[in-house]
Design brief:
By secondary structure, the chain is an all-alpha fold. Helices cover 73% and strands 0% of the residues.
Length: 231
């Protein structure tokens, strides 16, 4: 009889990060305040540094939701700087670290965004033959590139795409090459090599044929962004 090992449970700190991500996505300030209190309590109870990071993340999210036009309080600026330094000190980035970086990314200056992306990219090359990590990192880069489209950051778009082209893609997965194809269409449009967005439209057509609903929605939203800025 063949035995199958049960999947490993998600660590509590990652579960809390996922809850914070959902609350940020829903722009739920009440839930974020509850999660901030939870992260702070766990930080004091366990002395685990990652709960301090999640406390900072919830504070940052609440700032953007409730006082978006005000500068960061000094204590929050200091905490954010410490979180960024934590990421820069890593030898290998985990999925948790990529998720954390994704949530603070748009709050950073372009220079800091580039520094963090470079650090993550350097780390990734140490373990990119692992399929799960390869897909995770490609997704991370693509999402940051799509945010750069939305925020009209052409230089960042080019930098991220160049990183994407250096990755060895998993041969048995369809999503990474489709992400690369879609992003190539964005860069071609940006550099005026091909402003028809054909590569983007082809990648969208393929994910629709494959019924990959998540990327169908994301690709369509990004295309809408691109077409609205070109009109």
């Amino acid at each position: 009889m063949r035995l199958h090992s049960a999947p490993l449970p998600t660590p509590p700190v990652e579960q809390l990060l996922q809850q914070i991500q959902r609350a940020i996505g829903a722009q739920d300030s009440h839930q974020l305040r509850q999660l901030q209190a939870r992260a702070s309590q766990l930080a004091k109870a366990t002395h685990a540094h990652r709960y301090d990071q999640l406390t900072t993340l919830t504070r940052l999210a609440l700032h953007h939701l409730t006082t978006p036009h005000q500068p960061l309080a000094q204590s929050l600026e200091t905490a954010l700087n410490a979180l960024i330094q934590d990421l820069l000190n890593l030898q290998l980035w985990s999925k948790y670290d990529l998720m954390l970086c994704s949530q603070i990314f748009t709050s950073l200056t372009p220079a800091r965004q580039t520094i963090l992306l470079t650090a993550a990219h350097k780390s990734f090359h140490k373990y990119q033959q692992l399929t799960d990590e390869s897909l995770t990192f490609m997704t991370f880069l693509a999402n940051q590139l799509f945010s750069a489209v939305h925020n009209n950051q052409p230089q960042l778009i080019t930098q991220i795409y160049q990183m994407m082209t250096t990755l060895t893609l998993p041969t048995k997965q369809l999503v990474p090459p489709l992400l690369l194809k879609f992003c190539r269409g964005i860069v071609d449009d940006l550099t005026k090599q091909d402003q028809s967005l054909d590569a983007c439209k082809q990648a969208l057509a393929i994910v629709r044929c494959l019924h990959v609903q998540y990327w169908d929605t994301v690709f369509q939203d990004v295309l809408n962004d691109l077409q609205s800025t070109s009109n």
